[in-house]
User: Which sequence fits this backbone?
């Protein structure tokens, strides 16, 4: 599993509440990613990080922010959750010179 | 913008058959291509990464081929088993190989009948 954990694994929240998802890796890899997976859309990149305090937007970044204050942790925040953000969220890391990506177990988020 | 397509979307075959999953991409200037497996309710498991300079990559009963000029990759599964049942995804990084995240196909849902 490449030493990636995500927390929480499941969460139900109400529209308008803030939510923070955490990704933790144990191997000090530089690159980390947040994706969401939805039926009919597949996996899409939300944000990524190429080092501490260095982040950038992906394809579907609206409504999300990220932070990376330590190499091992990459946080995804929904400032005000909406029903359209109901999804499964995956964290990933990039390993080695060829950039092979490894994924965490996912967080299932339901916004009611 | 890179687009990745996987055909078929679903496939059901009896155990023991050899099968081929297809992946096509619109921008042939890829750095590499990665195949993943996803079991229901689980994360993605990396199966194979094939570099742009390679034509094939093998791992056990799996063989991935890459033809950049035609924008295609195939994943060949030999002697399929019920445990191979899963969704198979292919993905490519952005042009130039930057670490900006992968573009995924929507996957092939594979069922191997015992």
Assistant:
């Amino acid at each position: 599993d490449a030493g990636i954990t995500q927390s929480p694994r499941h969460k139900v929240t109400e529209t308008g509440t803030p939510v923070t998802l955490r990704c933790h890796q144990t191997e000090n890899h530089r690159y980390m990613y947040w994706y969401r997976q939805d039926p009919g859309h597949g996996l899409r990149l939300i944000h990524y990080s190429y080092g501490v305090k260095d982040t950038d937007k992906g394809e579907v970044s609206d409504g999300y922010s990220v932070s990376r204050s330590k190499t091992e942790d990459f946080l995804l925040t929904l400032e005000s959750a909406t029903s359209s953000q109901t999804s499964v969220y995956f964290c990933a890391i990039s390993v080695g010179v060829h950039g092979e990506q490894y994924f965490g177990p996912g967080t299932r988020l339901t916004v009611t | 913008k890179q687009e990745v397509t996987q055909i078929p979307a679903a496939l059901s075959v009896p155990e023991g058959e050899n099968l081929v999953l297809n992946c096509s991409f619109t921008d042939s200037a890829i750095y590499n291509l990665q195949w993943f497996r996803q079991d229901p309710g689980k994360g993605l498991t990396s199966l194979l990464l094939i570099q742009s300079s390679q034509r094939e990559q093998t791992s056990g009963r799996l063989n991935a081929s890459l033809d950049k000029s035609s924008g295609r990759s195939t994943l060949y599964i030999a002697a399929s088993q019920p445990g191979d049942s899963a969704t198979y995804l292919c993905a490519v990084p952005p042009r130039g190989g930057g670490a900006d995240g992968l573009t995924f196909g929507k996957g092939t849902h594979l069922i191997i009948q015992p």
Q: What stands out?
A: The first strand of chain A starts at residue 4 and ends at 7. Residues 83 and 111 of chain A are 5 Å apart (CA to CA).
